[in-house]
Design goal:
This protein is mainly beta. The protein has one domain (about 10-80): BH3618-like. It has strands spanning about 10-15, 35-40, 50, 55-60, 65, 80. Strands 1, 2, 3, 4, 5 and 6 form a six-stranded antiparallel sheet that branches. A hairpin with a 4-residue loop joins strand 4 (about 55-60) and strand 5 (about 65). The N and C termini lie far apart (about 30 Å).
Amino acid sequence: MSIEEPSIIFPLISPFLINNDYNAGKDVDLDKKVLFVVVTLNDGSGNISANMKAPVILDSELLLGEQKILTTDKYDVNHIINSKQ
């Protein structure tokens, strides 16, 4: 939820629910950080997709968050979770 505009909400999901081998890079310590990916509930075609290319990383110790754009081509910004077909 946006602090400035509470009507703006981004659904989040753990990337590990989509891909057990998800890797956000060697610099992400999963003992201290929690990963999420932003979900699009309707991509215009009725599909549900997740942005696996740019995870949201929350630091559980410092209580800070960031969105990191991964340099790898392994992940897609519109990874289909559920197809309407």
